[in-house]
Amino acid sequence: MIACFDIGGSAIKGAIAYSPEDIRPLPKVQTPLHDFDLFALAIERIAAEAGADPTRLIAISIAGVIDSETGIITCANIPCIDGRRLVADLSEKLRRPVLVANDADCFALSEAVVGAGRDHRIVFGVILGTGVGGGLVINGKIHEGTGGFAGEWGHGPVSATLAGNPPVSIPRYACGCGQIGCVDAVGAARGMERLHAHIHGKLLASTEIIAAWDAGDEAAARTIDVYIDVVSGPLAMTINIVGASIVPVGGGLANSHSLISRLDEAVRARILRRTDKPLVIPAELKIEPGLIGAGVLGLMELPK
């Protein structure tokens, strides 16, 4: 067994992983944001209180990107680790081996090993929530990419400026990554809200837009039409490039199965490989996929 963690800006969630199918969550604690010693101590205490072997590795899913060449993490929402060589620093503090992976990568790994991607060689896990992201798993292993960046299909100035039927003009919105015209700026939950306000002059929450669409509201249907057109093109291109045979979707927008089904139809109409089978599907693991992914990651590193 190993201790594993899913760490974000608000909470450290721990678990004990006995196998990929047997990962038992522990009580979560608040994330220390400004003191690295307290950050490490919180992890150590959770593992110790759960009875984990103090010499065995721990695995962590985290909301940040680690440069695979330098080991430096970029993590704006946890200032005490931002810019650190996190694996080396934590290993020294905790006196044990440490594995750290991006939370989207861990989500993709969890789906590939014990979720919707079982028996698929190439799994592209997609996040549609507060941001648009993803992770790529090939032959059961995370593909990290140079600099720690892989699967980031939500970023890059490729978002459509005309979308929907009939087409509507879409501004090239600024993205939090510093670029203009990213899919993230229109494909995330706030992006859907931005599209609705642009088209109809009315600000609604993404959950309200989807609920109205499900109820037959014409304005919401127009927004969803434009949204699907904007998002499906870049996603289809990404699938063409990576060759994924299954694309599980997590994040808040994936709670709408009707939205993901509509996205799947649009994507399958745009990819080169024709298939009648669903390709873009809701993720199977609704509870703590990052934690499960961290557990799977750590267990894979244990001696056989």
Provide a descriptive summary of the structure in words.
By secondary structure, the protein is of the alpha/beta class. It folds into two domains: 2-106 and 287-300, ATPase, nucleotide binding domain (Nucleotidyltransferase, domain 5, 2-Layer Sandwich), CATH 3.30.420; 119-282, 2-Layer Sandwich (Nucleotidyltransferase, domain 5). Helix content is 36%, strand content 20%. It is built from nine helices and 15 strands. Strand 6 and strand 7 form a beta hairpin. Helix 6 packs across helix 7 and helix 7 (218-242) crosses helix 8 (257-268).
Write out key terms for the chains shown.
single chain; 304 residues; alpha/beta; Nucleotidyltransferase, domain 5; six-stranded mixed β-sheet; five-stranded mixed β-sheet
- CATH class of the largest domain reads Alpha Beta
Question: Are there runs of 5+ residues with pLDDT below 50, and where?
Answer: none
What structural class do you assign from the helix and strand content? alpha/beta
- Average pLDDT works out at 95
From N to C, what is the helix and strand string?
EEEEHEEEHEHEEEEEHHHHEHEH
Q: State the domain count.
A: 2
* First and last CA, distance: 13 Å
Quaternary assembly: single chain
* CATH structural fold name of the largest domain: Nucleotidyltransferase, domain 5
Beta-strand segment tally? 15
Q: Any guess at the CATH architecture of the largest domain?
A: 2-Layer Sandwich
Could you state the CATH homologous superfamily of the largest domain? Answer: ATPase, nucleotide binding domain
Largest sheet: 6 strands, mixed
Shape: globular
**Helical fraction:** 25-40%
* Estimated radius of gyration: 20 Å
Number of helices: 9
Indicate the proportion of strand residues. Answer: 15-25%
